[in-house]
Write a structure and sequence with these properties.
Chain A: Pfam families: LGT. The complex is a heterodimer of chains A (234) and B (187). Chain A has seven helices and two strands; from the N terminus they run E-H-H-H-H-E-H-H-H. By secondary structure, chain A is mainly alpha-helical. Chain A has one domain. In chain A, helix 1 runs antiparallel to helix 4 and helix 4 packs parallel to helix 6. The longest helix of chain A is centred in the middle third of the chain and has 27 residues. The N and C termini of chain A lie far apart (55 Å). In chain B, strand 4 and strand 5 form a beta hairpin. The radius of gyration of chain B is 26 Å and the shape is elongated. The chains are: A mainly alpha (234), B alpha+beta (187). The interface between A and B is medium-sized, with 27 and 30 residues.
């Protein structure tokens, strides 16, 4: 069974719409969680304003820097860096010292959902596609971003994987499991790193730049988990 | 007794012959303490003598371990010496200066960098984004630290309007590009 997608869209580009949707979902979700966790309403509102701008800026900048200043594009890792940059900025501005760790936690919980939604855009636009594959659920792209061979539905796999991570993460977080946030962080970085092997762009290389970033992030997550464990034991 | 005084949590309440005093906990921003009328003593701690109304209220709550002042939803006829919401001339000056810097970064530095980059210095285009971002952060800083500043409020409304217009612009541009590409399909 193959999935056929026409990448020529009449007026509304699904990629752009899904990117906007992912920022909207992430920012609103963070606002709700921040409010529930006791962050001041005005701080949560300003976060709502800063988060999309900073995330988008870092997403574009990372592609610009890694391409040696030759091209612009949206990088998911850059977007992630932007989200945490916005969290740190708002945490430093906020008069309450507790806001920074709370906002860092809520951002970690919401990021898998943001990524999941944005990947629907990639799936419909035909970018970031998977390796050549002719099995079940193979995707045939026609139109503007047509591919000669059917591809593995890596974007759909990413959407599904990160949606599951988000749902499990929210359950763990709302049940106040001690290491929920750190587990979400490490799982997200590992999943992103593993799924990158399935991309067509990965052919011929051992580790992509995204995977190197993900390994670094997973390492940071493990350090974060160890520190929290030590703190809990102390 | 612990008193949460206008958002400063964990103030220690001290009954003295001269009156009732609050000692602020460590780590609270100096500016917030000054705005609420706290002063530093020789021991380095921040103190504030409470008004008779505030003292009377705390006396009536002596059996409580933690007291919010002012109590939520009630005023008890108190007219606390609220300096927290009042903008001092110094604050106004600082806030206005930051707002002007923010405005310059957004509407002068930003277009200037774009104009320079179009004249052969393409590598500096990215800096325009930095200046815009710095302008936004500065505006948020002013709104959080000096919430009563009118310039800050106006700046916030302007930036939000720009943000919404930018979003609409992007959507329209996307639709326009898609339409153009569709029209040019056969060429």
């Amino acid at each position: 069974m193959h999935i056929h997608i026409n990448t020529t869209h009449s007026h509304i580009q699904p990629y752009g719409v899904m990117i906007i949707m992912s920022f909207l979902v992430g920012a609103v979700g963070m606002y709700i969680l921040n409010k529930r966790k006791g962050v001041q309403k005005r701080i949560a509102l300003y976060m709502l304003l800063l988060l999309p701008v900073m995330s988008l800026f870092c997403a574009v900048m990372l592609t610009y820097i890694t391409s040696g200043g030759k091209s612009y594009g949206l990088s998911s890792v850059g977007g992630l860096v932007g989200v945490y940059a916005a969290v740190i900025t708002m945490g430093l501005i906020s008069p309450s010292r507790n806001d920074l760790p709370v906002m860092a936690e809520t951002a970690t919980v919401m990021l898998p959902l943001m990524y999941s939604v944005s990947k629907i855009g990639c799936f419909l636009a035909g970018c970031c596609h998977g390796f050549d594959y002719d099995g079940i659920f193979a995707v045939e792209y026609s139109g503007r971003n047509a591919h000669e061979c059917p591809a593995f539905p890596v974007q759909a796999s990413e959407t599904l994987t990160f949606l599951i991570i988000f749902l499990i993460g929210v359950i763990l977080y709302t049940k106040k499991k001690r290491y929920a946030v750190q587990v979400i962080f490490i799982t997200s970085a590992s999943a992103k790193c593993a799924l990158d092997f399935l991309r067509a762009s990965h052919e011929g290389i051992i580790l992509s730049l995204t995977q190197i970033f993900c390994i670094i992030l997973a390492f940071i997550g493990i350090v974060w988990l160890i520190l929290k464990m030590k703190k809990a034991n102390a | 007794m612990i008193v949460n005084y206008y958002g400063i949590c964990g103030c220690e309440c001290i009954w003295d012959q001269k009156g009732v005093f609050l000692a602020a906990p460590g780590g609270v921003q100096v500016q917030s303490l000054q705005q609420l009328g706290f002063y530093t003593a020789q021991d380095g701690r921040w103190y504030k003598q409470l008004s008779p109304q505030e003292s009377a209220y705390l006396n009536s709550m002596q059996n409580m371990s933690v007291v919010d002042l002012p109590a939520q939803g009630t005023s008890f006829g108190m007219t606390p010496n609220i300096t927290f919401d009042v903008e001092t001339p110094e604050d106004k000056k600082k806030a206005n200066t930051m707002c002007i810097i923010s405005l310059l970064l957004m509407f002068c530095v930003n277009p200037l960098i774009v104009a320079i980059s179009r004249n052969g210095y393409e590598n500096i285009t990215s800096i325009s984004g930095f200046s815009g971002l710095a302008a936004l952060i500065l505006m948020i800083y002013v709104r959080v630290k000096y919430p009563k500043n009118t310039f800050g409020k106006v700046l916030m409304i302007v930036y939000i309007a720009l943000f919404i217009l930018g979003l609409i612009g992007i959507i329209l541009l996307m639709a326009m590009c898609a339409s153009c590409m569709k029209d040019c399909h056969g060429f």
